Amino acid sequence: MYDVSGEGWFKHFLYGTSKLLQYRGPERHLTGMGRRFFLTVRIFEISRALIYSSETFLAQGSWQGLMENMWSGENATEWHPKEALYDLMVSCSTLNVL
Q: How far is 37 from 27, CA to CA, in rounded Å?
């Protein structure tokens, strides 16, 4: 983490947020503070997968289900077109690994 380029810190940050999301699991991110946390840091996981050409847990069924449920009911009004872009980026990351 102490290299001059900052690459070590960058990797630490991206992998750290990834592990935090995985540890908590999708069900803890559906409402409240967990939901806000997920919506804030998921872009870091998407970026990590795209930058390092690696798989992302966000492509797994349980996490895809979270995204489907996240915008239903009373939360549907909070949906923004960027959400479709993020979903597309997750799909691209899975194609990048194949």
A: 13
